[in-house]
Structures are given as structure tokens and as C-alpha cells.
Sequence to fold (310 residues):
Amino acid sequence: MTTEAFNAREFRDALSSFATGVTVVTCLDANGEPVGATASSFNSVSMDPPLILWSITKTAYSADAFINAKHFVVNVLGADQTDMSNKFARSGTDKFADVEVEKGIGGVPMLPGTITCFECEAWATYDGGDHEIIVGQVKAMRSTAGSGLVFYRGAYATAEAIPTLAPVETNDVSHFIDNYLLYYLTRATHQMGDAFHQLVADDGLTTKEWRVLACLYNENSMSLAELAKRTMVDQTTLLELALGLQKHDMARVQQLDTGTKLTGTAAGQQRVVHLIADCQKAEQSALEGLDTDAAETLKAMLQRIISNTD
Ligand SMILES: Cc1cc2nc3c(=O)[nH]c(=O)nc-3n(C[C@H](O)[C@H](O)[C@H](O)COP(=O)(O)O)c2cc1C
Fold:
């Protein structure tokens, strides 16, 4: 990257790193003929009064018409309107042939299929080097929830919202609860856990046995103390439970100098393999609407909370 001298190509490339929407601005020329040009220079200016701007290159065929127009319409193109954008970016053609327009402010054509139309009265024009900056006051507008066409790094694109962990809207009137982390954690745990614990019970396992077998899955080993933390079962109960599993060859208990060590077995793994698959399915449906990155972030956040509160 350089902050020193740059040539026109470098300037254009740098500008193209700023993603914009795509509009077609329309007006009538001095003879009352419709005029239109594709423009990505559109932007908001003022809320009160409601002002917008765009700029037109002074060498454009339609520059005079726009500079002198009393009214113009900014047609914001939808994601499926690249053809319309290309049509109005081509100079010297009959751009309105085959386009069914509606008449807006001052008889200015409004294009079909757009997501938003701003009907403007000319407010001011300013010299902007090789462009003329045109400011308009929005007198009327219509807008839909459709997805807009994007222009980014010299190519058309569509905009995808970045998923966030924003809470789902709730009608709950209790403001404290609405903002209380433990409420969300507990409720999510209950909602995810209740149905699953029923599956475990139907399978003839207690929740504690399931937790031990899941932690020791893949013939995993860990100390009694560590397993107690992971299963949230106290060490005495846990040891009894592990010795019971050992009788059925579903876990191995070893007394070492360093303490008690527990290890999973192939039989233990076999006992819960189908429940693990059910778990993964339930997790997928609980995470619906979050992409993989968001799901990983959520897990990393929960790990942090677990370590902060350990
Ligand atoms: C995506 C895109 C954005 C554009 N944005 C602008 C713009 O903001 N201002 C401008 O003067 N020309 C812009 N152009 C180029 C004009 O659309 C093009 O010069 C057009 O030929 C002008 O019409 P005219 O020559 O019939 O007046 C853009 C073109 C494309 C494809």
C-alpha cells in the first residue's frame, strides 16, 4: 500500500474497494425525451431536508440533461437487474426501448422491477472536477424489502448479511431477564437437553452414565477429578458409577500413584454410538440459522465462560 503519488488506474482500483449499490438515474431532457444513466455514485446527504446526491461525468451524453433537469428519479436496482444496469451504462443507444416505465415526479420515467425509487426535485449542482455533483431533494419514494445489486471491485455482486449472534426477538417484557446471560444459557440447556435426556432414559441409561460414556468415547482417558468436572458428578458418585460400568467392560478404572484414572472401552463406545449420532442431529437443528463460523464462535465463547467461572 502507498500513500504517495498514484496514477489514475491505481486511484480507480482503490475506489473500487468501496462496495456500492447500483442505480439508474432518469430524467427528461429539454425536449421532454427520457434520459437515463447507470450510476453507483449515489449517496445520502441530509435527513432534514431529505437530500441525496450522485455525480455524472461531464462528458456523458446525458450530462446536460441531468444538470438542467428540474426533476430526476434514482432507481435502485435489484440483485437480478444486471441487464438493466448494462443497458443504461451504454452510451448512444435507445435505452428505453423495450422498457415499460411508469411516470413519476415531473413525468420522469421510473423503471420496473427496482427495489427503491427516489423521486427528486433538483436542489443544487456543484462542480466536482471532471464530474458534476447533483443534489436532489426527495419528494416521494417507494421501497421494497428486495435484495439490491452491488458493485464491488469492478464486478456485480450480491449482498449477504453477516450472521450475528443477535438474540431472536422475544415478547418477554422482563428487561432484566432479556439481558441476563444465565437465563439464556439455562433456557437453551433445558430446551436442548430435555428431549435428549428422554432419549437417553428410553435407552436404559441414566444421564450420569451417558455423560461418563460420552466423555470417555473413543477410548478416551482422564483423571477422576477431570471427569468429575466434565460430567458435573461428584467424585465419590462418579467412582461408584465407573466401577459399575467396569463390571460390564464399558470403562476401565486404574488406581495410579498420581490418582484414579478412567478410560473408555470399545464396549462403552458401542453402548452410546447411536446416541452420539442423535446428539449431533439435535445440535444441528438447535444451531439452525447460524453458519459454521458463528457456531464455532458460540462454542469458543462458552468455553471461555466455563474457564472464567471454573
Ligand atoms: C456499475 C456502474 C456504475 C456507474 N456509475 C457512474 C456514475 O456514478 N457516474 C457516471 O457519470 N457514470 C457512471 N457509470 C457510467 C455511465 O453509466 C455511462 O458512462 C453511461 O454511458 C452514461 O450514459 P450516457 O453516455 O448515455 O449519458 C457507471 C457505470 C456502471 C456500469
User: Anything to note?
Assistant: The chain is about 35% helix and 25% strand. Residues 22, 37-41, 54-57, 60-62, 85, 89-91, 151 surround flavin mononucleotide (CB under 6 Å). The domain at 175-308 is CATH 1.10.10.10 (Arc Repressor Mutant, subunit A). The CA atoms of residues 67 and 125 lie 7 Å apart.
